[in-house]
Specification:
This protein is mainly beta. It contains 6 helices and 20 strands. It is 10% helix and 32% strand.
């Protein structure tokens, strides 16, 4: 069976990212860089990879990749995607067939009954794009995290509308009840209500880099402040938890379409697990964790990082009690699906150990 190294000439023409230092903007990958990626055993096909897979409803890009590749994040490599393709990724639909081209070490796509295409292009399908396309990862696991703030960064609360009063005699309010709000709405009529929660500290610096917000529900504007009063009147549309004076409002963001593919970061990244969602200290497969790296450090949606247990310092009793650091041990993958300035949310994928706060998440090597 051909290995990934058979596609080096194709990568030279199309690859614009790598697992090492960042490429210059718009520059093509050099032969040496492409060869380094291609020679990585982590991008080999599985020895028992099937010849083809027919896409069905419920499939994910990650799951299909895992049928063919040792590491699903190698998907963009074997398709010859460049950086722009990843940002505006291809769509795969139920009924299409993914073929393993063993002679050329490539994956190709075709419709049922068709001939495998020479190149899979996202621009050939223009009607109904995205309506029935398969997602990168199981959408049901992360949907609540796509539209709710969850992470509130420093200074983000400054100036946001706030609940200043509830109906007379009530401390808390729920669905169908009124909330009186002060602050600039900037034309918005539908808002999420949240309460600042636990501060998130960077494991490296111990500095607070954000707050994990407690999502309380949504409210809708009934009457804007006017001559008869200084507050806006809102009604509670739905309530996950009771709301009270001091809780903050943010506009409901549009839910993004799951339109990205797994890929290594463009630049070398070493991050740490900051928290496990839900207030617990450990996580397993399909759990959500946050890391101390975000947009400012080159993380984007779809980035895949390797999870490593952070090596402890021990005393070497065979060498005059000298302190030495044990190596980090790889045990799984993290798929980044939501990115803030200095924090990101990731879905824990295949793991052979539990994820702990403080563990390392780094570029695939």
């Amino acid at each position: 069976m051909k290995k990934f190294s058979t596609i080096v000439p194709l990568l030279v023409a199309s690859l614009s990212f790598a697992t090492g230092p960042a490429f210059a903007a718009g520059a093509q990958a050099t032969l040496a860089q492409a060869q380094a990626v291609a020679n990585s055993s982590k991008c080999d096909f599985l020895p028992d990879a099937p010849d083809k897979h027919e896409v069905v409803s419920g499939d994910t890009l990650w799951g299909i990749s895992a049928k063919f590749l040792k590491n699903p994040w190698c998907w963009p490599h074997v398709w010859g995607m460049n950086k722009e393709d990843i940002r505006n990724p291809h769509w795969i639909y139920p009924g299409q067939i993914v073929y393993l081209d063993r002679a050329n070490g490539r994956l190709r796509l075709a419709n049922v009954g068709g001939v495998p295409t020479v190149k899979w292009t996202p621009r050939s399908r223009t009607q109904g794009i995205g309506a029935n396309a398969i997602p990168a990862i199981p959408a049901s696991l992360i949907e609540p995290f796509l539209s709710q703030p969850i992470i509130v960064e420093r200074n983000e609360l400054d100036g946001t509308p706030r609940i200043v009063a509830t109906k007379e005699g009530s401390v808390n309010i729920g669905q169908g009840e009124k909330a009186y709000v002060r602050g600039e709405l900037e034309g918005g009529t539908s808002f999420q209500v949240f309460r600042p929660g636990t501060p998130l500290k960077d494991p490296d610096t111990n500095a607070v880099i954000g707050y994990e917000a407690v999502f309380l529900g949504t409210v809708k504007l009934e009457r804007e402040a006017g001559e008869d009063g200084d507050v806006h009147t809102f009604s509670v549309v739905n309530s996950k938890e009771e709301m009270s004076v001091g809780d903050r409002l943010l506009p409901i963001p549009p839910t993004p379409i799951m339109s990205y593919v797994p890929h290594p970061p463009v630049e070398e990244v070493t991050a740490r697990v900051v928290a496990v969602y839900g207030g617990v200290s450990v996580a397993g497969q399909n759990h959500i964790v946050s890391i101390n790296r975000g947009k400012e450090q080159g993380i984007d949606i779809g980035t895949v990082l390797e999870l490593h247990r952070f090596g402890n310092m021990i005393v070497d009793k065979t060498d005059n009690n000298r302190k030495v650091k044990l190596p980090d041990e790889e045990y799984g993958n993290l798929f980044i699906f939501r990115v803030f300035d200095n924090i990101s949310y990731g879905l824990v994928m295949q793991v052979t150990n539990i994820v702990k706060i403080g563990d390392t998440a780094k570029s695939p090597q």
